[in-house]
Amino acid sequence: QATLLGGLVIMAFPTRLGHASAGHLGIITNYWRMLYLWALLRVWRGAGWRTAVLGGISLGLALATALPALAYEVIPFTLLFVGGLAWHYRRQWRTWLRSALILFAVGGVLAVFFYAPLVLASLRGELDYLRDTGVVLYSTDLLAYVTPSPFNPLISRLGLIPAWGWDVLGSAANEGMAYL
Q1: Which of 63, 65, 69 is nearest to 104 (CA)?
Q2: Which of 46, 65, 135, 177 is the least crowded, having the fewest Cβ atoms under 10 Å away?
Q3: Dihedral sign, CA of 72, 75, 78, 84?
Q4: What pLDDT, in 10s, does the model give residues 46-97?
């Protein structure tokens, strides 16, 4: 029951639905990253090769669904998990090492199929359309993590929106609704 409730919260959370309506697919396709982390945890607790293969598939799909997820989620979480769990289970390293290697190998092989065309096109200079040519309209602002959305009816009615709220999140309705 707790798992069902947690899944419903993740599925129907207003921020997720707002991002879906604004077309931010990288945020709403994070199920694979959660399954990967779950499999990684199970592998370190001694799960077998089947869990490792499923974790590797989840890792490959996590890398394929959102390119920024590699730098912002997969690598940091993997380093935290590997470092923390390897330290915690250091005496039982033989039970998790084989499964962990299977997980990373399967994930790596799947990721090669998705990233190879991008890397090859980049090396050939065929990605000129991705070059930045000036000011970026939607860039990352550290205040965005702590700024409430100016489109939130409850917080704005209470007067809790800071002065920089409109500057950080913008004034486009579809963008702002994603950050409720």
Answers
A1: 63
A2: 135
A3: negative
A4: 788 899 999 999 988 888 887 777 788 888 888 887 787 777 766 666 667 7
User: Is the pTM higher than 0.90?
Assistant: no
Q: What is the dihedral of CA 64, 52, 13, 26, to 10 degrees?
A: -10
The alpha-helical segments, DSSP class H, found in the chain are: 2-12, 14-22, 25-28, 31-44, 49-65, 68-69, 75-88, 93-123, 153-157, 165-169, 173-177
C-beta atoms surrounding 143 within 10 Å = 13
Residue (of 86, 104, 103, 111) closest to 52 by Cα position: 103
Amino acid identity for residue 143 in this structure: L
